[in-house]
Write a structure and sequence with these properties.
By secondary structure, the protein is an alpha+beta fold. 21% of the residues lie in helices and 31% in strands. It folds into two domains: 99 residues, Sandwich (Immunoglobulin-like), CATH 2.60.40.1120; 34 residues.
Length: 163
């Protein structure tokens, strides 16, 4: 009996810790394709910002070579494909890989200030030139793209040339 009293609470604790958080249950598949004049765009971070609730739940994914992002919802250290039913703003950010000569290295802090500033200016110019996402799509405050996630597979294509 004593063994049962000690083991049961430990077993319940173990089972309780392995369960999926409630925020990650009842999610619906969401696939978003991002294009520019019909051509797919790779390395775009697509985020869904819930209009009704501010929570620790993050819904996002990066586009692949075909411009497709399959949304994943994350809570703490767990992630599951899909998004909860609700009304969202869609936000796009482009992850622009820097060429080797524009990478930042800690030893740069020992360079003369003028050289540091020149390299930072080149880096910023490169990012701005290659970030083709319109400014208004980069914030939930200004994005005109609304998405309703319901109990079905949600598909959306965004052509940034229309914004």
């Amino acid at each position: 009996m004593r063994y049962f009293i000690v083991v049961l609470p430990l077993l319940l604790l173990f089972v309780g810790c392995s369960q999926t958080p409630p925020e990650l249950r009842n999610l619906h598949p969401v696939t978003i394709t991002v294009t520019d004049q019909g051509k797919p765009i790779e390395n775009v971070l697509v985020s869904l910002v819930n209009k009704q609730e501010q929570s620790l739940r993050g819904c996002s994914a990066a586009t692949n070579k075909q411009g497709v992002a399959v949304i994943v919802t994350s809570v703490r250290d767990k992630s599951v494909s899909g998004a909860a039913a609700g009304e969202y703003k869609v936000v796009l950010m482009r992850n622009v890989p820097l060429p080797e000569d524009l990478q930042f290295y800690p030893q740069e802090t020992t360079l003369p200030e003028a050289e540091q500033e020149a390299k930072a200016a080149k880096r910023n110019a490169f990012i701005e030139k290659n970030n083709i996402i319109p400014q208004n799509l980069q914030s939930s405050e200004t994005s005109p793209i609304d998405l309703t996630v319901e109990g079905k597979n949600c598909l959306l294509t965004i052509d940034i040339s229309k914004y």
